[in-house]
Amino acid sequence: MGRMSESQECLAARAALGPLLLGRLTPAEEARARAHVAACPHCATDLAELEPVVALLGRVDPDTLAEDDELLDYRSLSDEQAEAWSPALVPAAPAHLRESVLDALGREDELRRRRRRRALLAAPMAAAAAVVALLLVIGLPGSSAPQERHLASVGGSQATATVHFVTTARTTEIRMDAWGLVDGRRYGLWLERHDGTRVGAGTWTAWGPTCHLELTAKLPLDEAAAVGFTTLDDHKDVARAAL
């Protein structure tokens, strides 16, 4: 697994640490998070630092807590304002631990909101992306390679994606938004040459049905004939587009 894919998995796992300690994950999500922590010493350290702070939350009187919107406002307060607002909620622990808990909870709430929005907008967004991709290609006279493509489902999968390319003389950076992924499954992104051989851009594990990735393949875009991604457990293509 490459360094970039490890960073993507750690980012997703760290966003789940707060909800894990608060019991807000499903059994499947909790199992995946604990499996990652067991294999990643950095995430294990983060979890160990959060545990004593989260334990203190059980001593807080719920009647004194603000509504969700007020809690988000509380995060923007200075340390002096936070102390004056509610001294009981500021434990005698390193300040970065409090921020880690709040950041983890905020990221998890944002992920849940994004999943709901994308589930509702996936179909129209995919159609719009295809139109935009066509307009971009038509509107770039003299360009020998497309800058954006919509990946269609193949092999009976439900996965689709929109990719944007940033090219150099020797590499292609691929920025991808994907939908219809299988939670917990591992995927690999690639560019395919005209002779059918493929150059990998990176791998990742799906944490929910959607994702945003920025990966790089060591192949110029004008030497590629197709782009797509594959499930790593059975090596089946799930989405692709010709270039």
List the helices and strands and how they pair.
Elements: H1 3-15, H2 17-21, H3 27-39, H4 41-57, H5 68-75, H6 79-85, H7 95-138, E1 148-153, E2 160-167, E3 172-179, E4 186-193, E5 198-205, E6 211-217, E7 224-231, E8 236-242
Antiparallel strand pairs: 1-2, 1-8, 2-3, 3-6, 4-5, 4-7, 7-8
Helix pairs in contact: 3-4, 4-7
Transmembrane segments: 119-140
InterPro entries: Anti_sigma_zinc_sf, Znf_put
Domain Putative zinc-finger: 10-44
Straight-line distance between termini: 27 Å
Class based on secondary structure composition and strand pairing: alpha+beta
**Major sheet: order of its strands?**
5-4-7-8-1-2-3-6
Largest sheet: 8 strands, antiparallel
Which regions contain 5 or more consecutive residues with pLDDT less than 50?
Answer: 1-5, 66-75, 85-92, 131-144
Domain module tally: 2
Shape label: elongated
Range of helix content? 40-55%
Query: How many distinct helices?
Result: 7
Quick one: how many beta strands? 8
Beta-strand content estimate? 15-25%
